[in-house]
Amino acid sequence: MALLLCLVGVTAALAQGCLHCHSKFSEKFSFYRHHVNLKSWWVGDIPVSGALLTDWSDDTMKELHLAIPAEITREKLDQVATAVYQRMDQLYQGKMYFPEYFPNELRNIFREQVHLIQNAIIESRLDCQRRCGIFQYETISCNNCTDSHVTCFGYNCESSEQWESAVQGLLNYINNWHKQDVSMRLRSSSSWPGTHRATPAFLVSPAFRCLEPPHLANLTLEDAAECLKQH
User: Fold this and answer.
1) Cβ neighbours of residue 21 under 8 Å, at least 6 residues apart?
2) Closest CA to 219 of 161, 181, 171
3) What are the distances in angstroms from CA 41 to CA 1, 98, 106?
4) Are 155 and 129 in contact (CB under 8 A)?
5) Could you say which residues form the signal peptide (predicted)?
6) Residue pLDDT, tens place only, 111-166
7) Rounded Cα–Cα distance for residues 154 and 125 (Å)
8) Could you write out the three-class secondary structure of the chain?
9) What is d(CA 20, CA 48) in angstroms, rounded to the nearest whole number?
């Protein structure tokens, strides 16, 4: 198992969807939308297909249903995008289709894309299991396409020395975060009362009461190790 510290610094924005963050998305989907009227014998398929393509990004975010932030690495985003564009290009290579076939195929590709994105995001976090201690990797926020990062703590330590080093690294990380948070609150108190850094999710988790902010000031290596062993 792994403790996932999803510490993501992003600004609020309208949901756009992971694929929307890919560099070729606008070009590809502009082509798909502009040529949708040539893909079905039945005129009723055109508005339905157009709506599916227009709402692709927002619908993606609605269907992800993730309990963790939608943060994807650039490498995995490229893999998802390549798979989706390949399916879409193949669909558009055909001539006009019989009624309902084209929008149904769009829905199939959409569902496959959602599954690919879900798996990509989860796999990156599960990779933490194969590490020992604090690890951070760069990602893109699917909410607003800004650069972000995920920090995690892996338990896959092969010796007591590695474990002690891992816990010390976690302790240093927590203390640094706590100091930065206090410093930020002091700087902002005069002009922006109540402003402070968002508390990382793992610090307020019911399973990790011993790592909550009130205990950080006097947190020792032994305390942190004991807390992690218990949970």
Assistant:
1) 72, 77, 140, 141, 142, 145
2) 171
3) 53, 6, 16
4) yes
5) 1-15
6) 999 999 999 988 888 887 778 888 888 999 898 898 888 888 888 888 888 888 98
7) 10
8) CEEEECCCCCCCCCCCCCHHHCCCHHHHHHHHHHCHHHCECCCCHHHHHHHHHHCHHHHHHHHHCCCCCCEECHHHHHHHHHHHHHHHHHHHHCCCECCCHHHHHHHHHHHHHHHHHHHHHHHHHHHHHHCEEEEEEEEEECCCCCEEEEEEEEECCCCHHHHHHHHHHHHHHHHHHHHHHHHHHHHHCCCCCCCCCCCCHHHCCHHHHHHCHHHCCCCCHHHHHHHHHHC
9) 20
- pTM, rounded to two decimals: 0.72
